[in-house]
Amino acid sequence: MKKGFDIIGAPFNQLGCVTTEQNTVDGLRDMDERSWVGLTDWIQVRTQRWGSDIVDVGDVVVTSDVKNLIQNGHKDKALFNYANDVKSTLLASYQNNRIPITIGGDHSIAVGTLQATMEFYQKEKGKKVAVVWVDAHADINNSLDSNLHGKPLALLTNQYPHNDWNIPSDSAVNPKDIYYIGVRDVMRNEFDLINELNMTNYDMSFIEKHGFNAVVDVLMAKLEQDYDHIYLSFDYDALDGSIFRACATPNVGGLTAREALHLVHTLSSSPKFVGADFVEYMPELDNNGMSKEFMVKLIDAVWGFRS
């Protein structure tokens, strides 16, 4: 059966160390003088020439209420409200038998995307979902320190005991079902928590020791054996920051373009694949358009086009 994909924009970029009012998703959609490709045109190529089923359903709008909450210092409440809007949009996609590909925005949008995924598959269908978290950072900061965009996994796993945060247990993510790829910059409390929770962490040291292809093979064998579904959450800063600088937190020594493409294509080629996030690319920091071209190619790999 041919897969149908919904492209969902989540241009919420207010909870990191560098915020922006610019619609980061439109920065990928639109053609400009810096690059030869835009996501909107490329969707047209894939649907009209290759027979793909890809629909851009538009953006989950950041409402004035969410903006006001942020301006008044209520960032937790702002994220809660926006994440609920994202969750509703993804649930509609799932109910229509579509595969949602959500484009951020900072990584906090995963609070909405993964709640939807867990509610639809784990809570309603009793299925087991693996979360592959590709990132330079662990994003499981369970303290009040630092920005909320570094805490989505702490929120989703109920490891964040602050400000009345609580995810219903049947929609929460089990830490043992999270598979880190490319992590290389963690806080001390995150390091301790990852070890305490016995989370799987294919960090850059592990990748360098065992080789990237071997890591992907081991990961896929585990996912195919033990899980019903696979969800991918891909942060642009997982890439090597010495080359890919178009984000708020570029980090040197990450994945190469070829490694990222291989990983994304391999995961999305599985019949168990049910959705993905691509987050934290900031068009205004993309000086030559190279990162935009790569992000479009990465999303294209999800649709099944690797070469």
Description of the structure:
The structure is a single chain. The protein has an 8-stranded parallel beta sheet with strand order 2-1-3-8-7-4-5-6, with helices on both faces. It contains 11 helices and 8 strands. The protein is an alpha/beta fold and 307 residues long.
Question: Topology of this protein?
Answer:
Layout: E1 4-10, H1 24-29, H2 39-48, E2 53-59, H3 64-71, H4 75-95, E3 99-104, H5 110-123, E4 129-134, H6 152-156, E5 178-181, H7 188-196, E6 200-202, H8 204-210, H9 212-226, E7 229-235, H10 257-269, E8 273-279, H11 290-302
Parallel strand pairs: 1-2, 1-3, 3-8, 4-5, 4-7, 5-6, 7-8
Which features does this protein show?
39% helix, 307 residues, globular, 8-stranded parallel beta sheet, 8 strands, single chain, alpha/beta
Give a concise summary:
This protein is α/β, with parallel strands linked by helices. Helices cover 39% and strands 15% of the residues. It has an eight-stranded parallel beta sheet with strand order 2-1-3-8-7-4-5-6, sandwiched between helices.
